[in-house]
Write a structure and sequence with these properties.
The complex is a heterodimer of chains A (286) and B (302). Chain A is mainly alpha-helical and 286 residues long. Chain A has helices at residues 4-43, 47-50, 65-73, 78-110, 116-125, 131-144, 151-155, 162-173, 177-185, 190-201, 203-219, 222-227, 236-246, 251-284. Helix content of chain A is 76%, strand content 0%. Chain B contains 13 helices and two strands, in the order H-H-E-E-H-H-H-H-H-H-H-H-H-H-H. Chain B is flat, with a radius of gyration of 25 Å. Classes of the chains: A mainly alpha (286), B mainly alpha (302).
Amino acid sequence: MTTSFGSMRTRRATRLWQAGFYAVMITMSVVTVVPFLFMASTSFTKSFTMMTYPPTLIPDNPSLDNYVEIIFRFQKGLFPRWFFNTVFTTTLITAGSLLLNTLSGYIFAKKEFYGRDLVFALLLATMMVPVAVVLLPSFQIVRAFRLFNTYWALIIPALATPFGIFLMRQYITSLPTALIEVANIDGASELRIFWSIVIPLSTPGMAALGIFTVMNAWNAFLWPLIVLRANEMRTLVVGLATVQSEFNINYGLVMAGSVLTVLPLLVLYLIFQPYFVEGLRMGYGK
Amino acid sequence: MRLPSPGTARHRTWRKVRQSLFWYLLLSPSLLIIFGFSTVPLFWSIYYSLTKGSMLGPKTFVGFANYVRAASHPIFLRTLQNTVLYAVMTVPTVIVLSIVVAIIVFQVPKGQGFFRGTFYFPLITPVVIAANIWAYIVNRDFGPLNHILGWFGVPGIDWLGNPTYAIPAIVMMEIWRGFGFYVIILFAALQAIPREMYEAARIDGAQFWRIIRSITLPLLRPALGFCFIMATIFNFQLFDAVYVLTKGGPAWSTSTVSWYVYQQAFEADNIGFASTMGVVLLIVILTLSLMQLRFFRTDIEY
C-alpha cells in the first residue's frame, strides 16, 4: 500500500535523479561540443596571437584573415579547387550508389534466384576484410585501368557497398510485396517497376543511405590519399591533412579550412538528422 | 501472389535459370565493384605475401619467408602490440561509457533527440579534422587540456611527443569521436525492450540497479555484441588519427599495423612484407570477430 507520504518521497527522489541525469548529460554535451568551438574560435584568430596563453574561446581581435587567406591566396586558389573536387565526387558517388544499392537491395529483398543467400552472405563477409589488406591490390587495379589521379578512381569503387545493399534490402523487405506484384500482373517491365514503384516507395530508406554516403564520400581519407596524388586533384580532407604536414602548422589557416569543410556537413546533418538515426537503427537491424 | 506457371518441371527449372541470369545481370555492376575491390584484392594480397619485390619491379616467390620474418620483426611486433593496446584501451571504455550514457538519455523525459544528436556530432566530422582539433587541445604549450590540468597542479605534459602519453592521447580522441555511434545503437535497443518488463519488475519491488542488472543488460546483449564487434573492427584498423597526430612516432611508439602497412607499401615499396602484415591483421580481426559472435550469441527474443 502506498501512502501519500511515500509517493511524495518517491516523486521527489525521481525528480532528484532526473536533475542529476540532466546535469551529467549537459556536461557531456559541452565536453563533446567544446573542441569544435575551439576550432571555430581559432579560425578567427590571427595565428601569431593564438599562441597566447591561457586558451580562450572568444578571440581578442576576431578577424577573417584566415578565411581570406585560404580561399583566395593559399597556393593560387588551390582550396576552391579542392572544394570543387569534393563536391563533384561526392555528388556522383551519392547519386550512383543510391541507384545501384537500391536496385541490388531490391533484388535481394524481393526476387528469388539461384545462389541468392550465398552471394548475399559473401557480400556481407567482405565488410570484415580490413582496408590494409585490400589497399595495395586495389591501387594496382586503379593503375591498370589508367584511373590513377582521376576522379573515377574515387568514384567507381564507392558506387556499391555491402552496407548500402544491406540497408536497402532491410528497408525494401518491409515493403508489402503485393504493391509490387500488382504492376507485374499489369505487364510492366521489371526495370519500369523498379523505377516507378520501388524507388518512390523506398525514399525514406534512400534518404538514410544517402546521408551516410555523403558523409563517407566527403570524409574519406586513406583511399583518396593514395589514388589522387596530384595537388590539384586532392579532396578537402586530404588537402587539409597534407597542408598540415608539409608546412609549418598554421593552426588558424588549417582551422579556417576545417570550418569550411565541416559547415556543409553540419547543415546536412541538421536537416537530415532523423533519417540518420533511422538509418543507423536499420543498419543494426532493430 | 505469383501465378502458377504452366508447363512441366523441366520448363519451370529452365525458367528459373533464365530469371536468375536476368537478376545477376542487373546485379553485376554492384557485384563486380564490391568483389573486385575486396575479394579479388584479398587473394591478390595473399599471393603477394608469399613474394618479395617492389610495386613495379619483378616479384620472386619466397614461400612463407615473410611470415617467418614477421614473427620476429621488432617493428611489426611493436605495431601489433600498439594496435592491441589501442583496442584494449578504447573498446571496453567506449562501450561502458555508451551504455551509461544511453541508459541515462533513456531516463530523461525531454531532450532525448537533442542529446543523441549532440553526442553523434563528432562522427560527422572527418577524422582528419577531429584529429587536428585534438592536436590543438593536447598541445603542450597552449592547449586547453594542459591548462585545465594546470589548475590541479599537473605540470605541462607533452602529450604527442612522449611515447607514454601519445597512445592515451589518441585513445581519448577516439573515445570522444566515437561514443555517439554506440549510444544511438544501444538507445535503439533500449527502446525495443517492452515496457511491461520494467513494470512487472517494479511491481515486484525491484530497485533501479537490480532492474539494470537483471533486465536491461541481459536484453541488451545482442546489441552489445554488435557494438563490440564493430568497435573491434574499427579500432584494429586505426589509421587516420595516427597519420595526422603522430605519423606513428616517436620511434614507432604510436604506430599501428595499418599505418605500418601503408608506410611499407607506399613509402618503402616493400610489397611482400606489407601484404604479409595485412594478412596477419585480417586473421586477428576475423578470429576476434568470430569469438565475439560466439560469446554474444543468445536465444533471447522479445
